[in-house]
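Input set for joint prediction.
Command: fold jointly, output tokens.
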Amino acid sequence: EIVLTQSPATLSLSPGERATLSCRASQSVSSYLAWYQQKPGQAPRLLIYGASNRATDIPARFSGSGSGTDFTLTISSLEPEDFAVYYCQQRSNWPLTFGGGTKVEIK
Amino acid sequence: EVQLLESGGGLVQPGGSLRLSCAASGFTFSSYAMSWVRQAPGKGLEWVSGISNSGGSTYYAGSVKGRFTISRDNSKNTLDLQMNSLRAEDTAVYYCAKDRICSSTSCNFDYWGQGTLVTVSS
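tokens >
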């Protein structure tokens, strides 16, 4: 099973700041990595697939990069609605796995 | 508009069974793989099971293999999860999720239901 390790666990930032979230895989997942956003009491929302492709209706301030084992989700300038938990997910090997999440909180 | 509506959650004793259902609308259900993803209270996401668009291929996480069975009815646009031999660690919100593009396997999930809570406790 591929283990995805996300860091940091919590990121404390102010609106307007840049957020950089990391996801590291225990073995190569090529570019088969996605990112999701989840707000309290809501279902997850797909942000990025294929490591760097924005999903439908996702604002341009969200970007993804990386391949192999190291991936980054960047939010260029945090909006109030971006404070949430973010998860990475790989589809390279069975079973599909998610990272443990990074909480982006208001500083 | 894509809609996924789960039902069937509730309180069940350890060792018991429960059947979850997901009613899908707003897209060509028979064209996409579907999955169940769960989230224990205060915890992260865990993929549980997936099924190909035809229903001919099914996939399970190791933690549920042999106890859970996924199925679909493309004539009724429904996805089911039969859960047997339930354990306390199966307690979670269970989400039905549509695959973004894959049909024969599970990839990424572009639409999710609101979830149904399963509580396993005596």
